[in-house]
Amino acid sequence: MNPDWRARYEVAVEAASKAGKLALSYFDGDLKVELKKDSSPVTVADREAEALLRKSLLGKFPGDAFLGEESGDSPGTTGYRWIIDPVDGTRSFVRGIPIWATLVGLEYRGEQIAGVAEVPALGLTYRALRGDGAYRGSRRIRVSDIASLSDAQIFYSSLSWFIKAGCQDNFLDLAGRTHRQRGFGDFYGFVLVAQGSGELMVEHGVSPWDVASMQAIVEEAGGRFSNWDGSVSIYRSDVLASNGKLHETALKILGRVRDLKEAENR
Question: Which of 223, 264, 256 is nearest to 238 (CA)?
């Protein structure tokens, strides 16, 4: 195991725990909610948790780059980049819903090598380091073996994101072929796939900080993570995570969005 990867991973787990506890101290309280330019909510919990993460991570590794949802992008010199979402699921956070997490992703020369999802309101920690497996707490987790859409459970965040992208028909086609559909959005759908509680997580409208940590966790649990055309990038808004066995089947259905758009442009 690369010792530099391991050292950063251990610091990430500790920093996410501290930042999650800080955010938790504001949860379900009387919070002032502000709207950012994209109309998404932000609170003091988001800003303070990200500031703590920046101080903790760059304090240990000052040459690393840092991309935070609230504070933006800071370049580095080491090839490492921290990608942070201090409160993933702020909309849930401000409504008193405990499904939110502090996310810490670690990228090295373009590869997502580690991820941590601290879920303080539920007392859970999901984590993964490339080559070391994925864990919920101390328990190793793995994706399911279900290989039929008719037996599968699919997760998503909100139908409105698919409507905005003009791909709701494709999503509904895919969802309609599954056994059960649940709107467990944000980080939660990804970690549920990673621990074998569902087979597909479909997203549209995500940012890098939403999914950087999720890629490592899903893949180290034996799953697959890609964009809707099968390429792999956290810097696109369309994401599919799966147990691997149903990935190509789902891609064929979701990929029709691209085919239709290409036909329209001819």
Answer: 256
Residue 155 tokens, joined: 């997760």
Across-strand partners of 175?
none
pLDDT at 32 over 80: yes
Rounded CA-CA distance 137/90 in Å is: 23
Alpha helices in the chain (DSSP H): 3-24, 44-60, 90-94, 159-165, 168-176, 187-194, 208-220, 247-254, 256-265
Phi then psi for residue 237, to 5 deg, are: -90, -10
30: number of Cβ within 10 Å = 5
> For residues 235 and 232, what is the distance between their CA atoms, to the nearest angstrom?
9
Give the gyration radius of the chain's Cα atoms.
18
Nearest Cα to 94, choosing from 68, 76, 112, 121? 121
d(CA 89, CA 66): 20
Torsion of CA 12, 109, 3, 15, to 10 degrees: -10
Q: What integer pLDDT is reported at residue 1 of this predicted model?
A: 73
Tens of pLDDT, residue by residue over 154-175, are 999 989 989 998 999 999 999 9
Per-residue pLDDT tens over the stretch 211-227:
999 999 999 999 999 99
Residues in the chain: 266
Instruction: Return the SS3 of 88.
Output: strand
